[in-house]
Amino acid sequence: MSALDRSAGVTEALAGSVPEALVPVFVVLTFLGSTWFVVTVGPAVYLFGPQRGWLSRRDGARLLAVSIGALAVVVLTKGLFAEPRPPASVMRIAEHGNGFPSGHATGAAAFYGGLAALLDVSDRARRYAAAAGMIVFVAFTRLALGVHYLADVVAGALLGTAFVAVLIALTRRRVGYGFAVAVLTAVAAVGLVGPTEDPVAALGGTVGALAGWWLVTRRGALLNDVSVKTALPVLAALGGAAALTLHFDAGLAAIGSTHSLAGVAFVALPVLRR
């Protein structure tokens, strides 16, 4: 797929029109669709949402399965298409890796779409409208920063939307199916891309989350409240450790095991009764 096929002119026009002073603003705003945002806010909604009446623990787990599964889908599809990003002359910030589809757009569509489908606040039409607005907004920030072509963000939004629709339907009766799909997607990513950092991290995290959900259901902990004082240090420590393994190239064994431990802990915290 050539840059022309991916609507290079749109990216060049938008990125070229953003004043230098606004680039840091877009860098902050694009974080709303980043992997780290999704894997931080998703577990927080799952853990603390039920006791605040936002959704049930079961639906929180469905959202979590959608979120981590979508990240595995990103790793798989980027490896499958292996399409480059716009050239450095167009990008307003340094970004590496493949460009198609946009991971931010895919993750945003899955996460905000999952929130719209599962939250028990406001009415459904407003939730879906807000989700659509967030997806478009995140996609726009990627174009404005010059790190994706139009086709990348459109494909990502469609992919994330399709994925959340499938998993919401699949998990209606059994939540574990969602985590199983996430694991299988990560396995496919390792098989296609090879045992490199991102696929191994995705596999570790999804396997850990599946194991954590098994513990929650096995121990009958669905209705247990989670203490913020207990959960936040665990989330910060293990989430930070998992991020550091990728940042400092810790080795595949350390990346896989740390992400797996984080996945187990994030999902199984309700087992630790308040």
From TrEMBL:
EC nos: 3.1.3.-
UniProt keyword annotation of Manganese present: no
Xref: SMART domains: acidPPc
Domain Phosphatidic acid phosphatase type 2/haloperoxidase, residue spans: 60-168
Domain of life: Archaea
Transmembrane intervals: 21-49, 61-82, 102-121, 128-147, 153-170, 177-194, 200-216, 228-246, 252-272
Protein keywords: Hydrolase, Membrane, Transmembrane, Transmembrane helix
Enzyme superclass (EC): hydrolase
Keyword check for Transmembrane helix: yes
SUPFAM superfamilies hit by this protein: Acid phosphatase/Vanadium-dependent haloperoxidase
GO molecular function annotation: hydrolase activity
Protein name: Probable PAP2-type phosphatase
